Each structure stands twice: as C-alpha cells, then as structure tokens.
Amino acid sequence: MLNRYPLWKNLLILLVIGIGAIYALPNLYPEDPAVQISGTRGSIEITNTDLNRAEQALEKAGISVLEASLEGNSGLIRLLADDQQLAAREVIQQSLGEKYVVALSQAATTPEWLVNLGARGVNLGLDLRGGVHFLMEVDMDAAVKQQLEVTASEIRATLRKERLRFRKVAVEAGQIEVLLASAEDLDKARRLLQVDRQDYTFNADDSGLLLITMNEQAIRNLEDYAVDQNLTTLRNRVNELGVAEPLVQRSGRNRIVVELPGVQDTASAKRILGATANLEFRLEANRNAETFDTETFGFRDQPNRTAVLERDIITTGNNVANASVGFDENNKPQVNIRLNGQGGRFMSDATKNNVGRSMAVLFIEHKTRTRIVEQEGERIEVREPYTEQGIISLATIQSQLGSSFRITGSGSVQEASELSLLLRAGALAAPIYFVEERTIGPSLGQKNIEQGVTSIQIGLALVVIFMLAWYRVFGIFACVALTTNLVLLVALLSVLGATLTLPGIAGIVLTLGMAVDANVLINARIKEEMYHRGLSPQNAIHSGYEKAFATILDANITTFLVAIILFSIGTGPVKGFAVTLSLGLLTSMFTAILVTRLMVNWVYGGRRIERISL
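== Protein translocase subunit SecD ==
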C-alpha cells in the first residue's frame, strides 16, 4: 500500500526524535553565575569553614549568595547576578589568602535525572558565555637564570673531570662566576670551557675570577625557545583538561593568550595552567662536601626537616617521557616515571657508582603573590614573583637505576595525579605568570546569546509564515519537521560536546533555510506530478518523495564537502560554523525526508483521497 511505513520504521523515527528531545532539554536550564574555590595544591581541601568565611566576607561586601556547596576538593558559591562575579572573586581572595585559587565559573542547573542520562547543555564559546580568558607572561629573566644554572652544573662536572680545583662556580647577577683554587689554571680553564660554548663570553677580572655571560643573540634565541616551549606545554595541559576548541597562542614578545570555552572547573584549570612545577633529581651531599658545592632544602610536607643536597643536577622533569599514578606496598600514592633516552643515561651514570647513597626528588614551583594597593585614588593589582622549593622524596639508591622508577611522598592521590599530569604534559621552560584573567563580560555574552536566539526565531518565523501561506497542510508538516530539526541539531551539539559560537549560530540559521529548501523541492515535485502529469494524490506523493530525493542528496553532499574543507583549513570561528553546518545537513536530511513523510503517511496514507491541501 502506498504511503505507509511499517510499524518498526514509525517507532524508530519517533525514538530518534524522543532521544533528541531529551538530550536537547538541558539547554532550557540556564547556568548560574558562580565563583569556584580550590587550593593552590591538590592536597588542600576546601571545608565548610572556608565556605563560611567566604560567605561572611561576601555578605559584609553586600554581595548576595544564592547557594554555597562543596564539590569534591573544591567549593562552589552561586551568585544571583552575573555582574557580581568579579567583585566576589576579589573579596573571597582577600578573605581566604594566598593558599587558595578563586576563579570565575558557571554552575549548571540541569536536573539530576538528566545528568544521570549523560545529558548536558551545549558548551558556549567565549563570545557567548561560560569561558575564561587568561593572559600569561613568560618570565624571561628566570629563563636566562635557569639556563645559566644548567651551564654552571656542566662547568663543575668538566672541571672535576679535568682535575682543576675550584672554590666557587655559581650564578650571580646574570652571569656565572668561576673562582679557581689556583690562578695559574685560569687560562687552561678558559680554553677548556670555551669549547662548544660559542654562545658565551669569557672574561677574567683582576682577582682571578672568571666571568661567563650569555651573548645577546643567545639570549634572544633562548627567549624564543622559552615562549615556544611554554606554548607547547600549555597546549598539552589544555588537552589533558579535555577542553573543547581551546585557543593557545603567542601574543607579542613574551605573552601567551589562553582561552578555554565552556570550562566549568576554572579554578582547577587556572591552577594547572599556571603551575610552573618541575622536578630535579639530586644526590644527597656527603658529610665532607664543600659548602659551595651544596644547598640545604626543607621537605615540602615537613618544614622542620631539612637535607643537604649536591648542587649538581642529575636530570630534571624536562626529560620525563611519561608519568602515571600508582600505589606502593603500603597503599600510598606514588608517581611512576619513565625518562626519555637522555634522561635515562643521566640517571644510569649518576647511580651506577652511588649505590647506597640517598637521592632526593626536589619539587620546584614558581608562584606569584598579588596584592591590591591604592595609587592616586585607584586600586592597582601588584604582582610579586617568588619560588618555593621542597624535597618530596629522599630514598636510598638500592641498585643502578635506568629510565623507569618511582617517586613517593606526594601526599594525596589528587596531588600525585596533578604532579603526573604536569610531568606528562611537559615542564615549562620558564616561569609564567597570570597578567590578566577575565571572561567576555557576562552582559555582553548574554546580549550575544539573545541576539543569536532572536536571529534564529526571526528566521524560523519567516520560514513558517511562507510555508503555511504557500503549502498549507504540507506547510504545517514542513514547519514541524523544521522545529524537530532544530531540536535534533541542538541535541547533537550537546552530546558531541561541541562549542557553540556566534559563527555557529549563523550555521544554524543557514541550516534552517537549507532544511526548508528540501521540503520546497518535495512539495513542488508533488504538485508537478499531480497537476501536470495527472497522477492521483497518493501516486503523486509517492513519486514526489522518490524523485526529489536524488536532488536533495546531491545538494547536501556538495554542501557537506564544503563544510569539511572549512573545518580542515579554517580557524576556530570558521570551524564552529562548519560543525553546525555539517551536523545540520545530517539532521535536515532526516527531518525533511523521513519526519515529513511520517506525518504525510499518518494524514493521507493508506486511504482513498481525491485531493490534498497543497
């Protein structure tokens, strides 16, 4: 019988529409503006006491709180208005102090039963709402100092190998100072150290002190390397966070812009992105070691305990190929480390003749303190950089180590996880500081959303008016299919975790126009079959859908190819447009052909009719 679907096909189409409606539903629940609080370290847990202090500070500042709750190791404070977020963050940061990270966030209001089904709203880009923008600055002075420290360690090793005694090899005031035990060895040491060090200038002063400095070209090359390496590391860290369509790019000589659309845990993102943590593996110094060859460090979690370590560094976190979290025989967290080829050789050479001695894992973290000062009646944020160094593990070398080993002393599982993430993503080549943190203003983002929704509504309304006026009952079918198409498209964007931007909204508007175009082709074909070829209404409907299908498929395939090209070679906004356009083509084919046919079959199929309203 013409124009009848079997029961299984009807049920399948309705099932797809029902599932689409469920997964599009979370977008009807707007997010609450919020401020998220977490510790500067993964081991610091936020407690109800911390939340109460934050709430009291906000209440004193006249900022209304909707709700405060604990979520894992962090706290979330929901606010009543978007324009209170920035003020709330400043108040809470001043109240809680430097051990806490306070970041802007958006808190979901999706019902729990939808969350349990895996349903979530569409991620909104920075031009809409829900993202965070960081402007970060690379500390070039620290990059130069780190390189000089590495060179100083190499110089000490070279002098020992050549049996040239020295009293001092240290980095002072942007240069390496080498003081030999005998002034007669100065020329020999200079010739020896100049080999393969064309980037350095060697000078001696009247006291017999050899001064080694980097030349200007080497410093410029090092600065470029530091920024490029930090870019790569930040991209790796963003990938570990699982952020959709992030932006990480260089800005000017020594700054990096990081934009994270749709991020919920902004406090964690800020902590992980800004962490300039690195590891150094050093031997514990012998009791008779010279003081200028050693340094004393405290333990990270035991400030009253100290150990004396050699200045020479065996290897650093830069040579870590992979890192993962595990548990030792006492069920305490540990970090399993695998070094690359170079790091493995360094570790093997250092431990081969030092079995029975202790090796320390030194954790180094560069941070900044920010405080608000008033200058000429204006509140200005002042940044003060500082470095924290602490031993996280000191263990006896039982046998010669290779490229794989483990370190303990991380404290909690979360702290071990963060350490392994940082090592896995790569160490920063130089410390990096947050210069600016902001969102695209909540009011502007809301205005963009409203304008985008208005554009979709106007486009949909104009199409509905035209279809109803021109095609009557078949116009109703097309309008229902068009609405279903929009629901399915939103559901797909939600399920895939795509980020919706203003160009993406433009793709949705274009999709609506192309979707109704398919129905226009079908309806025009039915008219032609019925009025010009003299077919009966049932045969005209059947023939119209059959013959229009090839044209619709051809048009959609060519547009889909263009969308793939745009996605392949385009930047972020262009990719957003391409994603919504390509997904819209798929939903359009489904709704324009199958959904409208389903409704036509229900109304006209399986019975004798003399005319149709078209």
